[in-house]
Amino acid sequence: MSVFTHPGRHRVAVLVRHGLLPFELGIAHRLFGRAVSADGEPLYEVVTCALVPGEVRTDSDVTMNVAHGPEALAEADTVLVPAANEPDAPQTEGRLDAPLTGAFARIRPGARIASICTGAFVLAAAGLLDGRRATTHWQEADRFRELFPAVALDPDVLYADEGEVLTSAGDAAGIDLILHIIRRDHGAAVAGEVARASVVAPHRDGGQAQFIRRPVPERRGGSTGAARAWALTRLDRPLTLRELAERESMSVRTFSRRFRDEVGMTPVQWLTQRRLERARQLLEESDLPVDRIAADAGFGTAASLRQHLHTALGVSPSAYRATFRGSAARP
């Protein structure tokens, strides 16, 4: 007897494991469930399945009663693997355990497979990501690289589309991924209606980089420490290497070499990162116009700030501010 009951609809099986994040399961049902044709007919049928039917623990104080087992995977056109907050073999050892191996063996050839957040560990452990570009939550990027060196990990994007295999970053990036799948299957108009009904953006600019705080490592003391402390109080001013070197009574060449040894980057790179941090803080916490923020952060002009922010994070100042302060913030 078929698990899916609506012939003609695209069949989506969501494979959940113990430690499930209910949010990720919810967005799959909600977003795919809201995709309809011009005649109002649902375009997808979504079924939840587990390695063993029955109770599945979540990362909260509720459990899920899942009626279907891995047999649903054999019928699915798309298999979606959310994250699990309980460590298992893919996340700790980089391999599939026996139940997951059996489940993946049921997936029919040609089916599309996608993951949300650390669900990418499962896809990688199954060998589906070798030689492919993929992403996962930025906090898990180092461990992912250690376990799966054959995968071209890009921790800065919200999702990665490799055709039949797709991966997404943290929880909310699952929304971006599912809207992308709907857009790919049925066009921007259908995906846009789903986004509007769900009160989410149909497309978000940039990637994970804009959500990652990357404070520049500071070493206490050191032969360039005084110059760095001095520069931090003058980020709005044009600072030259000669000025910084003079603070330490060094030649530019000696200062540059010692700075790199102590900080791990050139003085220019360090200044740029510090200025970006300052600009991000002002975009998040103030209503100052972009040209004023550019001046206060030491970029001089709004155009220069836009260029540096886009290079570092893939977004414009106004898009960054809207992400963190909402559309009512002053552009």
TrEMBL record:
This is AraC family transcriptional regulator. Residues 225-323 form the HTH araC/xylS-type domain. GO terms for molecular function: DNA-binding transcription factor activity; sequence-specific DNA binding. It holds the Pfam family HTH_18. Gene3D superfamilies: 3.40.50.880, Homeodomain-like. Keywords: Transcription, Transcription regulation. The keyword Transcription regulation applies. PANTHER family: ARAC-FAMILY TRANSCRIPTIONAL REGULATOR, HTH-TYPE TRANSCRIPTIONAL REGULATOR RV1931C. It comes from Streptomyces violaceusniger. InterPro entries: Class_I_gatase-like, DJ-1/PfpI, Homeodomain-like_sf, HTH_AraC, INH-QAR.
